[in-house]
Amino acid sequence: MYKQKNSDKSIFLWGDSHSQALSLGLRTSFPNDSFYQIGSSGCKASLSKTLTLIVEAKQACDKANEIAIHKIKELKPSVVIIAQQND
User: Fold this and answer.
1) 67-76 long-range contacts, Cβ below 8 Å, gap at least 24?
2) Is 81 helix (H, G, I), strand (E, B) or coil?
3) pLDDT on residue 49
4) What gap in Å lies between CA 47 and CA 25, rounded to an integer?
């Protein structure tokens, strides 16, 4: 998880590898806000268990989402942005 702590305002970016393309732009546009990011390649943000046939990918995605949900609850960011490839 990438984090940059600068102020009381915070942004949390969550999603697959496509979400990572937004990271630099968000950090540059909001340089005084704290910034947190969890992005896992091939893993869509989800509040429930991942639906996939590949066991290893399912476990990795479920763990990434579990960590993201935990961190969002813990950090209570001002804004959560979910970004991912749309199928």
Assistant:
1) 67/1, 67/38, 68/12, 68/14, 68/38, 71/1, 71/12, 71/36, 71/38, 72/12, 72/14, 75/10, 75/12, 75/36
2) strand
3) 79
4) 26
Which tens digits make up the pLDDT trace of 48-85? 877 765 777 888 889 999 999 999 999 999 999 999 88
Instruction: Answer yes or no: are the C-beta atoms of 35 and 71 closer than 8 Å.
Output: no
pLDDT for 20-32, tens place per residue? 899 999 999 999 9
> Do the Cβ atoms of 16 and 41 come closer than 8 Å?
yes
Q: How far is 54 from 61, CA to CA, in rounded Å? A: 11
